[in-house]
Records
---
Amino acid sequence: MFTTTQSPIVSSPNERGLRPTRDELCQNIQLLIQLRWAAGLGILSVTAFARYALDIRLQTAALMLIGVAVLLYNSLLSLTCRGDTNARQVERAAWGQMILDWGAMAALVHFTGGITSPALIYFVIHAALAGTVLLPWQARSLSVLATAIVIGIALTEREGILPHVAIPEFEMSGTLYQNGTYITGVVFFFGTAILTLSELVTRIAQRLRQREERIRQLYDARSTFLRVATHELRAPLGAGLSLMHNIQQGYAGEFTPEQGDILDRVTRRLEGLRTLIDDLLTLAASQEVTAAHVPLEPVGVCPILDRIVEREMPNAERKNIHLTCDKSTDAGVVMAGDVGLGIILGNLLNNAIKYTPEGGRVNVKYRLNRPAQRVEITVSDSGIGIPADDMPRLFDEFFRARNTKTLQVAGTGIGLSTVRTLLDRYHGHITIESEEGKGTTVHVTLPLALR
Amino acid sequence: MTIKILIIDDDPDLVLAARMPLEQAGYEVFSAGTLEEGLAAVDTIKPNLIILDVMMDTHTAGFQLAQKLHGAGAKPEHQAIPILMVTAVHQTTPLRFSPDDDYLPVDAFIDKPIDPKTLLAQVSTLLQKT
């Protein structure tokens, strides 16, 4: 059933590498935008500081202009990932920002001394950042381009095509920018540094992307497996138990009391197995829906509560249990998952019915607590209760209170730990009050979704 | 005239489990094992009620059949036949919780394993409605 996991790591990788998704691009663009705010303000403040506090003779006006330009195009870029921009537009913005940054950095380097500028290092940093959003060949080309820009600046200044802007404090001799050996050295180290770094970063980014893809595939395979397992494990039990019920209720003819006793025992064991399978599959399903990559969405509590109460009604009726639902009219919407919330409520209600003897009562109460901005769900029963000693371990996986065993109620001890896991994911809270022999009250609250 | 009930389910044991109490209660019971057989049987047998398994050969066959018989564009004579859908308790697959089940065009649900008493009660309630 897990054949899909045997396929290669990436289903059909583009030979040039995995493209970043829109979300990934946007995240990186946001990061660059934040860094750029700092860079723009940095240019302005460092220029002012160097010029007026340290009295270094700088091209103040030109540098200030670069700083302002950076801030200006950054505010335009910050609109990129808002709203409904599509992947194509985002990709174009990602490229656009590189070109704008390259331009700003070339100007910055030129006005701070060309090949002698300490600002050269920024190209390297930028190439590393760009590597996180670009494909390997794109990053490589950009690094070559950056090296070409630096060579271009150095040569045009050396040949006097572009005036060399010297910072006297840096260049004691004043002619370093004309020194061929110096230029070659700087260009060599600059070029190798930028190429190596961008190569490293793109490779790491690629590897992370492949891993993400692989995780996604594993989850898909797991979902398929769960769906198949759910059916394949439950179907034979369902059919077998249905036939057993027929014999027990006399539709297949008479049987002796001894045979009846055996039938009861077999049915009880099969019911136990069914509970185990249900709980294990619910646990697996809940792990799936609580996985970090599944986003929370606004979910109405009432429709799910109605569905669960309706579903559990036959179980209650079979045991002559009076099941009531007391709902306030305020509809509450919480940030959760449809399936997950169903599992939480289903488990609580199912427990209440399971651990309440024939003729008892189970009540579900739903309230919207506006001041606290939470929905409150209370499930109370007149059941067997929980021994005080067992209360601290209720949420442990596979833990079952002692009295459930003596009373022979089928169960696995997975239910409440599943509920707790799901509630943690949904920022919910659960408290349980109980007195052995009197009943149990479970109180769950969940934060309301922000409008 | 005897009341005819058509069970559409690919699991012969489940068909038997449903057939026994229904026949003893005096209904005439027919069965079909696939979606196509089921659709054909609806027209030839003209049952008074259909018992439909939620998951047959494919995981959505039951839903598809329900849509064909009761969904938009279904024949009026098909629409008139009540459908009792057999589901698995605590089904955690998206099927049960999918938004479609709010307007899944069936008249009632019964959980697996089938409890004969509950089945007979559900069937007679549904037949009284029509």
Note: Chain B has a mean pLDDT of 82.
---
Amino acid sequence: MEHKPFFSFKSKLDISEYSQGYKIYDLTNGNSKGWKWKSSMFFFLALLMILILSVNEFRIERFPKIFIIFPVCVYLCIHYVCILPQKAKAEGKKIFDTSYLLSQESSFEFYKEYFTMSNQYEFLKRYYSEITDCIETDDIFLLGGGMQNAVIVISKSCIDEKKCSSVSRFFQNEMVTQYKRTKPLKKVKKQ
Amino acid sequence: MSVSKISESFLVTEEDFINMQLARRCYYVSPKRKIILRIMGMIAVFSGAAATIFVKVGVWQMFCWILLILTGFYMLSYYDVIDPLMIKNASSRFYQFNKNAINSRTIEFAEDKFSVISEDYKLELPEKYIYCIAESPSTIFIFTDKSEFVFIPRRVLSDEKIRFIRSFTSAEKYKTIQIPKEA
């Protein structure tokens, strides 16, 4: 006997939503993983250079190597904090542009242990245990993990607010360790 | 005997998965990046060696120059030795951890449609929406977009079926992947 889903809805992505989701996944679990500790390391290295110079009354001629090391550290810090996220977002846009499947309207159904995603061409069944990241932002839900379609982005624009809250609570309960909410940019007026 | 349709069922083995990851890495890393890293490695090795031999330095400076030479060798061998080794280890661990979730799948090429059927995934895509087909010595990739793909180990296909897959899509959508070393 097939169980009924807890809830179901349809979602259609646009390029900005997918690129946002891809950027988050890339920075969390993808090629750009570890950007926080790397940028912090170079930041503190740059700070150390300044400290060494300040102790020596900013006499650069005594430490000529700092002239090379300091700008490299500053560049790498900026690279990890600013340039890498922009590259990831641009990569997400390129992937969306090359994909016919991502722009299709998909139906999502959430069951006790798994969820399904289906559209005209594709059907995917994924267990919650396979999901490594469940991230909620103001505009999207991001489900990362699995061997096929590792990045699943669900647009909130097609879901009403009440259902969105139900979905959010469901994710928080079912994926306790994987769930994360990014800080809301939009302030919700308290009634 | 010409082939007009392919339908193959297979289960991905650990070796298939490792070969796929190695081929995938070669597909995504541009030859320009490899050349740049090798050139930087050669510069590091030569400058470190020259400084060690021709410049009179103290113990600490000698240590730094030797470190530069070792870094140069690391950069020279990164894409040929170190990266494939890391990929093999990581892929093997990933496969062992996830082997219960890996199901057998059936892949079909028929007329102008490509299909994948497994327990948890189904795809039926017209040929015109395939992004590209890439072939390495051990694996054939069918990309549905720039990053998502389905792969078939070459061991499950006969030469005739491989020829059919090569002609399935237009020449501009077909790519060959060169791999230095495989499992």
Note: Chain B has a mean pLDDT of 87.
